[in-house]
């Protein structure tokens, strides 16, 4: 068979490893595909940079559109919206299948790209975009195609997991932990997308779209990052036998009248130390998928890093290439269900509420009354005196609630903050996961 022409766009952490594996595994890849894969060029921003021994300098070009024009398969590893979007659209329109790891682009402009793939009669694969090396999107799209996914819950950002892990195990504060993540190459020079939860929210949108056959955009995802997580929150979690993790949670919801919907959120949460997600350390990722017939499935592995991510890219490349050789096409976008997105207020969760209160008779009763008035039930209460030399005695009161709607919990917290005996609402964090 004639070789299939492969264009690589971007030669950074992932692109370099993809180029290297394409060359070192060339023979095996040809066997698996049924035709040789010929890397015809690598689009870069500047030709001058030294890219090490793995990159053949004669393949480098700054003319990405020209490279795309001649390709059967295009691998986009530039990242960001433009020029990645225009180049992918050009490739799909020109009849080339595309493999990308670009979650930001997919979560924002996915529909436009899928439609272009459909029109071009070609494929668009993106396993690397969510949880790096971990095979997760293909299992959801293909292996679970006969089942109904109820929930996807997981840690999908390596940088923030590393930061929270260091705050927990090494007692670092937030900025020291971020600095360490940067020095190890996990966090970018500008870690905003990671620490503010944008990266995880884009991944959650992609996961929810696949799991629920519904278009979910990044903007549909309720997003809170980890910048507000304090050493105090991490210590409070420890006291109740929990750890703080940044979670992505995609759920199929069912209203009282049976109407189904979807809720998608990314936020820090306390989870019991005995929960399998609690033991996901460092920059690793782990995702639980709960389906009606299959039950709970857990996917675990390296969610970031050039080499692990390259594995997912090449897996997609082999699939797309094999289909091309066989004249077939894998499944395209599936959005037939188009379930409505439910507002955050309807989400059912538990809260850990930490208060500073006046240490005088009746305080506990007043707090309990406010909570009960909002229809929220208390799971545990812990009170501790705060040492103070002057004025009235103060105490720290920690309440963990039973599950209630987010709206009821929010209203409870504002009512508590308004009580004269509450000096400060020290921290509020959701509690997720069963023991
Ligand atoms: N690094 C990871 O762990 C990881 C994991 C999963 C997914 N991804 C995704 O993979 C993609 C690439 O990530 P990365 O870590 O390799 O990024 P990177 O920043 O290391 O590499 C991107 C490269 O693209 C180059 N580039 C920028 N504009 C260009 C242009 N117009 N033409 C050609 N090259 C251009 C940059 O100079 C850089 O070398 C991103 O979409 C990222 O989100 C990365
Ligand atoms: N910045 C991302 C890379 C993988 O998508 C992370 O830390 O998980
Ligand atoms: Na993956």
Overview of the structural elements:
The protein is α/β, with parallel strands linked by helices and 435 residues long. The protein folds into 3 domains: 4-132 and 307-326, Rossmann fold; 137-302, Dihydrodipicolinate Reductase, domain 2 (2-Layer Sandwich); 345-431, Alpha-Beta Plaits (2-Layer Sandwich). Helix content is 36%, strand content 27%. It is built from 14 helices and 17 strands. It has helices at 13-24, 26-33, 64-69, 84-93, 103-120, 137-143, 158-169, 174-183, 192-195, 198-212, 231-239, 306-326, 363-373, 406-418, and strands at 4-9, 37-43, 60-61, 73-76, 97-100, 124-125, 149-155, 222-223, 242-254, 260-272, 284-291, 295-302, 348-358, 378-386, 394-401, 404-405, 422-431. The strands form 2 sheets. Strands 7, 8, 9, 10, 11, 12, 13, 14, 15, 16 and 17 form an 11-stranded mixed beta sheet that branches. The chain has a 6-stranded parallel beta sheet with strand order 3-2-1-4-5-6, with helices on both faces. Strand 11 and strand 12 (295-302) form a beta hairpin. Helix 4 (84-93) packs parallel to helix 5 (103-120) and helix 7 (158-169) crosses helix 8 (174-183). The radius of gyration is 24 Å and the shape is elongated. The N and C termini lie far apart (55 Å). Bound molecules: nicotinamide-adenine-dinucleotide, L-homoserine and sodium ion. Nicotinamide-adenine-dinucleotide binds next to helix 1 and helix 12.
